[in-house]
Amino acid sequence: MNSTRQALIDSMKELLWLRGYDATSPNQVLDHCGAGKGSFYHHFKGKKALAIEAMNERVDEMIDECDAIFTADIPWLKKFETFLLQPRAGIKGCPVGRLAFDPSMADRDLREPITRYFSHLQYRITNELMEAQQDNMIDSFFMAEELAAMIISSIQGGYVQSRALNDAQQIEHSCRGAFALLYVHTTALNESF
């Protein structure tokens, strides 16, 4: 891939995470990566096209990270420990989730990468929980899909609390709480962890 094109994408990914879509201008992207205005429009039709490319690349990276954890040959509870207790930049917020708050995300094309990420995450976590329930490794009191939604909401809510309180530990507390819920509902703790 052209290095200038990739620099534009990388800069847009970082600025989307820091500022969101609506507060990021093409000039800020150019300043961030040091590219000239002509190169921006040589590679992209405009801000929206660059943002979609950057968002899709970010989502692909995050899906790959998620899949690497949930396809690893380790016990199911260890997968959730790895996923939930990994370091997160609480104050910056979720690189994908924070974009959902931008008014421009009402645009279907801009929203699609966000939808794709959260749909994949819901699918991956639900399947892992269903397998654990089928193997009698976790209490089947909860529907797997509902528990998956709670886990995702705990992560996203932790990001919001971290940003609102300017306290990076809030995301940690939220994710530890979600893991604790899984842990206490494990039916065969010694065999699964």
What features would you describe in this structure?
This protein is mainly alpha-helical. The chain has one domain: Tetracycline Repressor, domain 2 (Orthogonal Bundle), CATH 1.10.357. The chain is 69% helix and 0% strand. It has nine helices and no strands. Helix 4 packs parallel to helix 6 and helix 7 runs antiparallel to helix 8. The longest helix has 27 residues. The C terminus is likely disordered.
Give the secondary structure arrangement, pairings included.
Elements: H1 3-19, H2 26-33, H3 37-43, H4 47-70, H5 76-84, H6 108-134, H7 144-165, H8 169-184, H9 189-192
Helix pairs in contact: 1-2, 1-4, 4-6, 5-8, 6-7, 7-8
In short:
By secondary structure, the chain is mainly α.
Structural class: mainly alpha
In total, the number of domains comes to: 1
Q: What would CATH call the homologous superfamily?
A: Tetracycline Repressor, domain 2
Q: Major sheet, described briefly?
A: none
Compute the number of helices. 9
Radius of gyration: 19 Å
| DSSP strand content | under 5%
Low-confidence stretches: 189-193
Helicity, as a percent range: 55-70%
- For this structure, what is the CATH class? Mainly Alpha
String of helices and strands: HHHHHHHHH
At CATH level 2, the architecture is Orthogonal Bundle
Instruction: Please provide the count of β strands.
Output: 0
Overall 3D shape: elongated
Distance separating the two termini? 43 Å
Query: Mean pLDDT, nearest integer?
Result: 93
In CATH, the topology is named Tetracycline Repressor, domain 2
